[in-house]
Design brief:
The complex is a heterodimer of chains A (324) and B (243). Chain A has helices spanning 6-20, 44-48, 60-72, 91-98, 101-104, 134-138, 151-163, 212-225, 244-253, 268-279, 304-307, 311-322; strands at 2-5, 24-28, 53-55, 76-80, 114-119, 144-147, 168-173, 180-183, 196-199, 204-208, 230-234, 237-239, 256-263, 289-293. Chain A is an alpha/beta fold and 324 residues long. The longest helix of chain B is centred in the last third of the chain and has 24 residues, at 180-203. In chain B, helix 1 (12-26) runs parallel beside helix 2. The radius of gyration of chain B is 23 Å and the shape is globular. The A-B interface holds A 25, 51, 56-57, 59, 61-62, 64-75, 89, 92-93, 96-97, 101-107, 109-110, 141-142, 144, 164-166, 239-241 and B 4-9, 12, 14-24, 26-27, 50-51, 54-55, 57-58, 61, 214-219, 221-223.
Chain lengths: 324, 243
Amino acid sequence: MDTMTIGKALNLGLRRALEDDPKVILMGEDIGKLGGVFRITDGLQKDFGDDRVIDTPLAESGIVGTAVGLCLRGYRPVLEIQFDGFVYPAYDQIVSQVAKMHYRSQGQVRLPIVIRIPYGGGIGAVEHHSESPEAYFAHTAGLKVVTCASPNDAYWMIQQAIAADDPIIFFEPKRRYWEKGPVDPDAEPYPLHAARVARPGTDATVVAYGPMVRTALDAATAATEDGRELEVIDLRSISPLDMPPVYESVRKTGRLVVVHEAPSNVGVGAEIAARVTEHCFYSLEAPVLRVTGFNVPYPAARVEEDFLPDLDRVLDAVDRSFGW
Amino acid sequence: MKFAMYTIVIGAQTLHATGYAMGIAMDGKVGTEDGEAVVAYFGDGASSQGDVNEAFVWASVFHAPVVFFCQNNQYAISEPLERQTRVPLFQRANGFGFPGVRVDGNDVLASYAVTRAALDQARAGQGPTLIEAYTYRMGAHTTSDDPTRYRIASEVEAWQAKDPILRVRRFLERQGLADEGYFDAVDEQARAEAVHLRERVLAMADPAPITMFDNVYPNGSPEIDEEREQFATYLSSFAGEAH
């Protein structure tokens, strides 16, 4: 068992994937010599060569479109989009082609592409560096969407995503890149598209993913002092959603709060609320509540701490749930 | 020969072609006896798309074995060439650092020769080429198009005289390479294939609605399975009725 940051765990996971399969290649802006702006691919070009770890021109659509062609030739490209807000130039290739080719070809064409995207805020950045665009991709059939919240999950999930034949959008919580935790390289990996109870509890369920899992856990620690035991579920997979653990939890607690940085309007929380309402209607003591970013463009860095859900807003939502 | 699927979004395929060509190079199949190459077809309208220009960037900086074949038929539905470019399209390649050549798109032999040469050069490791096949769209874009709204009859007539099929036929006749009997046989073969194709297409059964849930993912998805099941239950509630 080793202790390392999420960033280092991703680096190690990518290294394992490159070692395991000669068809795996990495492509992205600045990922080679520089090792990536967050150093996630540090050292990989040196060890695997510039024909397997490729510095690309500055054009996101080109990165994804050429990856499609490489898949048709038998390669397994792992792409890096430098920041969440820069994925949009590639959005057409992703939803019009990557998501649809398997269906279009009735199963004859597989596109085993992984698109790694550092996402979320809390890093004091300018526009387009703090987005949470997961809903745009979860809404598109043919894609799968996952997000890690811990070093161990980062290490294993990136390898599982690369080994899968689905096109997968792999969201990495950039504000958590430097947070450390245990990584067990010998453990049996948890299934890629499975949710996990990160903290058991009895009084209310808090569902979160990516950067908000830590926030939810911090809220649960604080709630204990108020005599409330929150059950925190790390969703891990946004599409497909693994709902049975959520249903089981809600049937036990009767209350659900969903937390994400992305705005509430038509977000992942709205989907979860709809499903829980349908499947756990008679178990609910209160409506499903959502703690999210506001429905404004991501604000200036000086006010982002008020935009982002924090421990207090999660506890406030739990209080409001108990008010019903 | 391998044929990639349609992509419909104009120009998207040029990036796929370029990526495939990069894969050929990674496989070590460039500059060898068994060298391979890719040819990507697109129109004059497509040359304006970002993806096509990004494909030119990738093809040039990665020296990819891809031939970009632009069928310049002068119109993208109603938009004339002048709305897509200020320079002859073949010159665009110069800006990206690889050769561009214009060929008479209505000359079968010239088009073949130029394409063959460009593909051989790509296979040999000389990188990409842009071919602009200069031609003309004789008919309408689709059956819902009305070209009389944006072009004049005399323009169409002028190009009628350059019909490529007629030209190659005259050439073969004059060279004594084919006679009336040959062309009659070709016409008959074409007619028979068209009839055969129409019969087969018209005889195809409509897919069962439940099949719309198939092949979304290579190894399926529990959510799709659940939705399929719900829809199947819903359909069976109409049991006994025509559906």
